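so i finally got all the pieces together for this one. its two components total, 523 residues if u count the protein bits. some of the lines might not be protein, just check the labels. i wanna see the whole assembly predicted at once instead of chain by chain like last time, that was a mess tbh
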Amino acid sequence: MKHYSAFAVAREALRYHTGWERAWRSPEPKKRYDVIIIGAGGHGLATAYYLGKNYGIQNVAVIEKGWLGGGNTGRNTTIIRSNYLQDPSAAIYEKARGLYEDLSQDLNYNVMFSPRGVMMLAQTQHEIRGYQRTAHANALQGVQTEWIGPDRVKQLVPIINIDGPRYPVLGALWQERGGTARHDAVAWGYARACSAMGMDIIQQCEVTGVRSQDGRVVGVDTTKGAIDCDKLGVMVAGHSGQLAEMAGFRLPLEAISLQALVSEPIKPCMDVVVMANTVHGYMSQSDKGEMVIGGGTDGFNNYTQRGSFHHIEETVRALVETFPMISRLKMLRQWGGIVDMTGDRSPILSKTPLGGCFINCGWGTGGFKAIPGSGWGMAQLMATGHSPLTEAFSLDRFKEGRFIDESVAAGVAH
Amino acid sequence: MLILNCPYCGVDAEETELAAGGEAHLKRFGPGSSDGDFHDYLFMRENPRGVHFERWRHVNGCGKWFHAARCTQSLEVFGTYSAQVTEPPKEIREAISAKRPGWTWREFE
């Protein structure tokens, strides 16, 4: 792998850009790997990367049905924050946020991490109490957040309407080191680094079955033939249920559609991420100038990667109320992704009833921000059998009643 | 946009008139049941990619609960039926079989 640098750009500029090589190889699968990861999205690739980097396990294949980063990694609104209420959540999301800070240097790939600040608006008395509580919890967890008043909100976001008739802005939970990153680049950067370590990323290869022997996984059947492995990691978000069925166990998940949209590009007008959870909308401005908008989920089980029209209207209506100047903007694109929701709205990072098989799923509406931390924890779990980061997120927590209840904590889809 | 016919008031209601109530025909396990059964009742859903039976409430209409059979992959609606049953009636199952031969669902099929 050739190193990316300012010097490399200058060198290639002088020779008509003929020297760039492909960022990752596209090999045919080998007969056997130490570890197979299903799903070449952010979580799968990050897990593979940290398996190689932290534990020296480099005989790894990452298998992907579609194309790399084409699932929820390429469909989210790229927000990165760690201002969660519960300790296990704050730990894994803050680990991820910390890793994002120098991920570009680590991967030698510009993931465009932009710690521009994330603001979660409080628009009811209930939310004020909730966010102040979160700010106090964050202080104890070592996550830097603060409660700010409406004046500071207006100062940070001049285009906001503080005095809305129905939902005035009463303050906000502010995480200064939260922000955004280029979501595709996160997947591409990890893929390139994995490939450079000798790992195989096999795209357009669908897993059709999981083979096991004496209660232990021994390999997978794919559209490119059978592949043996010692350990298997399933990280396929919306379709986790189908994979689990192949592996012979069930998951407490429901798949629903979440959608997002972007506007036409406009001049820079908002340099923070604003989330308005009461009215259900969040917005940030991309480097291209598009307003990136996310809203709520559909209320029903759904694998269509589309989402209902009326949610677009509800989201946009809420945001027009909050940011009156965007009322004449045209929306350019709209898309949906399938999110896998658990009962407590927290993810599952766990061993499974099938020996040697690990699962990483249930990130629901908020998986992108967690990619490096999730990969770090899953790699530790898969390599050593235990990780303090993932311990609380085990599959048996539902049976034991150890919920990590972020649906109440955040009061909204995250 | 999803349109379901309310079997009580007969209105073709679209999504904004309705509230989804999750998977239908759950077998309830309460006090005295095993931990495993209680866990499955609370958290384990079929979550199929295909035929799905579910509960809906005609919330901005007649206010009644009812059942629907729907495909989660194509959003095709196979039919709606009364809430006063513990499994889908014969005509609904036949309607599904006509369009999705070989479909399966927990204990009844």
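The domain at 29-105+182-251+346-410 of chain A is CATH 3.50.50.60 (FAD/NAD(P)-binding domain).
The mean pLDDT of chain A is 93.
anyway lmk what u think
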